[in-house]
Amino acid sequence: MIDPDVAAWILDFLLRQTLDDSLVHRLILSLPIPAPSPSSPLHRTLILRRLSSDLSRRSLSPRTLHSLELLSSLPRPSSAAALRAAYAAVAADLTVKPLRPSSRGGDDDGGGGGGGEGGGEGEFYDAVNRIWNCRVADLEAAAEGAEGAEAAAGLVSPELRATRREMEEAVVDATVRAGLVVRYTEERAFQAVRVYLEEAWKELGPSFLELAAEALIGMAKGKGLEMENPNSSKPSPEEGSRLLELVNHSGTVNKRGKEIIEENTHEGESSSPELHDPSSVGWNRMGKCKSTNFRSFENANESGNRCTKTILKLDRDSAAERRPSMMERNPTARTIECCIVVEVRKNQLLFTVSCSYGLIDIQPVCCAAGSHHYPKEQVFLHSPGLIDCQSQLTSVPARWVSRTCINYSRKANHETWDDLFGSPLPANPVEEPHVSYPQKGKDSLLVKDNNQFILRKRRKKWSSLEEETLRKSVERHGVGNWKFIKQCHPSIFKDRTEVDLKDKWRNLVRH
DNA sequence: ATAGGGGTACGG
DNA sequence: CCGTACCCCTAT
């Protein structure tokens, strides 16, 4: 079984190659990427790759802006000046786009809107509102606040402020509008992005695998080369041998991952060449092979007294018997080896599943199916009669889980729900392993009459920033335009749906 | 997509 | 234990 960290190295390496997007997409789906870490080096590579992909497809979109925003929020942002320039250029391009003659012909909106003349202006006003009055305004506000400065200040430049003023003028002045079309061409934006990418890739340096390869060559020559990139540590001899192992087994690794991709293809899903949201993938350790896949563990005994709690340990992998400690990574672990914490509260079932390693196959399936890639909210199965598990599991709403996932797990022949609940409860529920078990903010599993399970979103308190933004947005755009308001502040409201905004507003006006 | 009704979780 | 914030479902 392929090691998740090695997978991350591979991905990091491959992302820098000139691979087709769809191939990259498949790689992301089929490699067992370990738990996400916002500060991981892979994160940066992924966003850069996403940006490169936009450039090579010659398709600038809000996603491009988002990529640039993410890049600016990374620690030690690279090529800050070029990044600012690229951001301003892309923002201007996206705004002006509806004004260009070419955009009237074939837009991506197949809805057959017969707007004809004037439609471009309408879209332009919307774009100014969305991009400059909301998005850029947020950046500027954050840049002024002393605390928010780290993230946003990197993008705010005199150029950006000037462009914003210009856009606002253009709303009321047709002459200015005409001037925008001439000056802010798409090519200009492409160029700015190209310049930034060139610098950023250069600054990133060689991938860990390349450095490792160098080191291996060095070892072979018996003189151990020095690593040049200070971000990566020198691979140890063990790591070197693991890399070699990897090469030897590359033909057979992840066979099941391929089957999954085929299944997805049959379902007609996952055909989009889009890369996943880069915030979803990361790696725990670059060049450090000691940490385990278990994070901090809490004793599951310490829960509410009105709950009945059970821990069932499934361990059908005979190879795991020799494993000395749950705190050590077990390379032979299979998907069927897991701990399930079950909690019965009133008419709800809450449970958490944790497995030591493996399950490299389920995650890709779920990601592909939902066309989302959820960083912490890994998916496991919830279908009547079936339970599946995921390393460091948490849960996701049922609507994110696909049929593909369910079908796959059927094939995998997992334990059935009845098997689990029919099992005798252990006298002492908490045995040797400490199970990762988030006491706060865990998801619940409701049981419906028809024996279906429905997961509930994690409850999250509204921050004052969210509240303020909502207040201002309603003031600006009126009550009821929830979707638009969400679009205006994609980062602030990233964890909220339009319905959430509506509900929150209902609460705000009640008092 | 949005409004409104209703269930659940959490803090006092 | 209760009130409220948060979340979900469904009709329109």
Structural class: alpha+beta
Largest sheet at a glance? 5 strands, antiparallel
Terminal CA distance = 56 Å
What is the number of helical segments per DSSP (H or I, 4+ residues)? Answer: 20
- Return Rg in Å: 25 Å
Number of strands: 7
Mean pLDDT: 59
Order of helices and strands: HHHHHHHHHHHHHHEEEHEEHHEEHHH
Q: What is the helix content?
A: 40-55%
Shape: globular
Percent of residues in β-strands:
5-15%
Major sheet strand order: 1-2-3-6-7
Low-confidence stretches: 105-117, 224-453
Task: Walk me through this protein's architecture.
It is a single chain. The protein is an alpha+beta fold and 511 residues long. Among the domains are: 308-455, no CATH class; 464-510, Arc Repressor Mutant, subunit A. The chain is 47% helix and 6% strand. The chain contains 20 helices and seven strands. It has helices spanning 4-15, 21-30, 41-56, 62-73, 80-96, 102-105, 119-144, 149-152, 158-172, 174-183, 186-204, 208-220, 237-249, 255-266, 362-370, 403-412, 417-422, 464-477, 482-488, 498-510; strands spanning 308-314, 338-345, 348-354, 382-383, 386-387, 445-447, 453-455. Strands 1-2-3-6-7 form a five-stranded antiparallel β-sheet, with no helix packed on it. Strands 4-5 form a two-stranded antiparallel ribbon. α9 (158-172) crosses α10. The N and C termini lie far apart (56 Å). The model is unreliable at 105-117 and 224-453 (pLDDT under 50). The structure holds a DNA duplex (12 and 12 nucleotides).
